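Posting for a labmate who doesn't have an account.
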Amino acid sequence: MNNELYKEEKFVFMTLDPIHIGTGGTNLGIVDNTIVREAGSNIPIIPGTSLSGAAKMFAAMLMGDLDAAGNKKPKSTENPVSHTFGYINGNGSEQSSKAGVVSFSDARIVLFPVYSSEGTIWVTTKAMLNEIGIDVKKLDLVEEKAYHLGGAGENGKIKIGWLYIDVENLAVEKPKLDGLAGKSEWQLIEQKIYMVSDKLFTQIVNDNLETRTSVAINSETGAAEDQALFTYEAIPRATWLISKVIQDDFRSNGFETAKNCQVNDRVKDWKSPMDVVKAGFKVIEYLGIGGMTTRGFGRMKIISGGEN
């Protein structure tokens, strides 16, 4: 189903910097500040709430009314951002609210970069390849093997992190997702993709996350705080992720009414709530998402999904 009221779009992102979406607390372990993980697989994700919050903030910035991204009353509640994401204004008896018309899935890792004996490669799974339109025909997959998607060369072995495993070559069709195969970023990595089992994928990802050490700074002296060393982890740069955004514009002509109230040239091309989301996503390439953005973290780029 795909009409004016209901639309689903897949967005593929590539991280330009490490991404840190923290759990909101500290742990007693190797890493003090850990990142959010999916409960069933233990693989790091970017929560849909983080994507929604960043897209809303940046879209409001483009529109020229930052109050539309927060709890303050915007200049007018009839605007594209408030219509798209919803709003809650005021409190008590004076509180007013309206539900948004878009929903976000978590961004899940599709291709994960890791150093190997062949240089940097990207590992993935059969299920995640299906997400980007690559159908792996081979059914008798061996859990202890890696499968090179280049389809050329002799079978052999490869060292991936601490693993030293057999490699089998597979020839697969080009991805069918929104012209992904024609993107320069894809062309750079398409011969460096290896498929592994779900079990190995989880281990490889968690063993090769970016881990850094920092120290808290005393705001009065500008020097390092004594005994304030801490470590934190992040999804590394050049990781590919996928998220689904669903537009369910149940208020029908509401967006046109909201759009007509705007005179900002930067939003004149917004024709639907999905356009508002895309505009917000594109700013993440410059201003980032999550924590540690002042330390060079957070930027990621739309590879597929923002063309239309």
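Reply:
Got it, the structure tokens are right above this. The mean pLDDT is 84.
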